[in-house]
Design goal:
- The protein has 8 helices and 21 strands.
- It is α+β, with helices and mostly antiparallel strands.
- Strands 2-11-14-13-12-15 form a 6-stranded antiparallel barrel.
- The longest helix is centred in the N-terminal third of the chain and has 36 residues.
Length: about 475
């Protein structure tokens, strides 16, 4: 609709304009009649337009202040792992002759898990024993030769150089005997380690070999089995964002759940916060280790857990939906709130206006209290308002908010409140004399735009008036 509807809606023909301009050619009665008709037409147009417009009222939802428990938590995900896992390998190369355990078997420390083929290892033992016998015989002969020639040397029948040769042969054979003994020890070690035993008591969670498979331990120890020491206790490696890691402390309470048992909550505690950061897609996280009990055996290695680190917890406090602290009232509501707030009676002030020291205000005294603004829920000076909406000390402005109410007579009012902890959906509000359990507050305000009928307003044809004026 145009800002000047009469210029668009009214049709004034040229003869009527000329008739008006030629005042000397018409009498005064016709001019007065024309003015009256125009005034009546304008009034009728305004009446019909207002009748066609529909005044829209805002849609208001209300919520109730309740009393209950609330927690501030940090949520993240992590992977369940055994507290201690040992990878069992072999130090001896060979073929797997027999496997005695399978997946999920419980084993004891020292229990035989598998055996390698010992045919080659036993032949190595026999060969080492033969080498020892040969080296020992050679050493004994060399020792006798040295002793005999030593007596001849003492009688000056053998030169010193000849004696030195016999001594060298004896010592060389003694070294060969020691080498043969070491070879026997190695062969015995290999034979002993052909029996692959469990180093701990626990449960077999992985097996990487089959009977008849050849394993080579020449360069690196192959992993044959993986054993978890005690699955009645597990640990969770949680990835916590760098923005939240400062709120995680050792011993902190943790709740978590897994998708397999979505309706069950498990408890744990923070054991340590690892200082080594991890960066994935430019997101920095830190690993937090959480200890938990698993006596029922429901939690399995590799499960993904959703964790809630309890940062702060309060019980039996006043709670309000967080949306009630963020609503945007209409201009009419805000005007009514300002009027109701200005009209409130303050203790010791019969005028309803708070007395302030102008000198303190000019000097910027931080202890000067100023009026709380009900339209924004904030004050000009940082700090919480008291029961009269006055602001106190600095540093608490971010904790202040506003609750909006509507009484049975339709009067709107704003209540200053101080916020506590929040879980996102509900927020704690600190108690004061203007809020109580069961009180109704606005939780949402939807402003509906004014609707206008499509029908056009009255259209006045000035040609009719021209004929009425005798033209």
């Amino acid at each position: 609709m145009s800002g000047r509807p009469f210029e668009r809606e009214l049709f004034i023909p040229g003869p009527a304009i000329k008739l008006i301009r030629k005042g000397s050619q018409i009498d005064m009665k016709k001019i007065i009649a024309l003015v009256i008709v125009l005034a009546l037409a304008a009034a009728a147009y305004g009446f019909i337009r207002n009748k066609n417009s529909v005044e829209a009222q805002p849609l208001i939802d209300f919520a109730e202040i309740t009393r209950g428990d609330i927690e501030n938590v940090i949520s993240c995900t992590g992977t369940i792992e055994p507290v201690r896992t040992v990878a069992v390998g072999t130090e001896v190369s060979g073929k797997i002759d027999k496997i005695f355990v399978d997946f999920n078997d419980n084993v004891k420390k020292g229990q035989v898990l598998a055996v390698l083929d010992t045919t080659f290892l036993q032949s190595s033992i026999r060969d080492a024993n033969a080498s020892i016998v040969r080296a020992d015989a050679q050493y004994r002969k060399a020792e006798k030769d040295y002793e005999h020639n030593k007596e001849l040397f003492d009688q000056h029948y053998v030169s010193e150089l000849e004696l030195l040769s016999f001594e060298t042969t004896m010592k060389s054979n003694f070294a060969s005997l020691q080498s043969a003994q070491s070879a026997l020890e190695r062969a015995q070690f290999n034979l002993d380690h052909a029996l692959i035993c469990s180093p701990i008591s626990g449960k077999v969670i992985n097996r990487n070999v089959e009977e008849g498979q050849t394993v080579a331990a020449s360069f690196s120890t192959p992993t044959l089995f993986q054993i978890a020491e005690d699955l009645s206790k597990i640990q969770i490696l949680a990835a916590v964002d760098e923005s939240d890691i400062g709120q995680i402390k050792e011993g902190q309470e943790v709740r978590f759940s897994v998708e397999s048992y979505f309706d069950k909550k498990f408890q744990g505690a923070v054991r340590e916060v690892r200082l080594q950061p991890k960066m994935v897609s430019n997101v920095v996280t830190y690993t937090v280790v959480v200890d938990a009990e698993n006596k029922e055996g429901l939690l399995l290695p590799g499960m993904t857990a959703t964790l809630d680190f309890v940062v702060e917890k309060k019980e039996n406090v006043l709670l309000v939906p967080s949306s009630a602290l963020r609503i945007q009232p209409t201009e009419e509501m805000l005007a009514a709130m300002r009027r109701n707030w200005t009209g409130r009676q303050r203790p010791g002030d019969s005028t309803g206006q708070r007395q302030r020291d102008p000198n303190a205000r000019r000097q910027g005294d931080p202890n000067t209290q100023r009026q709380w603004d009900p339209s924004s829920g904030e004050g000009r000076r940082s700090g919480p308002p008291d029961g009269n909406g006055n602001w106190g000390g600095r540093g608490q402005r971010e904790n202040m908010a506003r609750l909006c109410t509507k009484d049975d007579q339709g009067n709107y009012s704003a209540i200053p409140v101080r916020k506590g902890i929040t879980d996102g959906l509900m927020t704690e509000i600190l108690e004061n004399d203007r809020v109580h359990e069961g009180q109704k507050v606005m939780s949402s305000v939807i402003q509906v735009a004014e609707k206008q009928n499509n029908s056009n307003g009255p259209r006045l044809d000035m040609r009719v008036m021209g004929r009425a004026l005798g033209r």
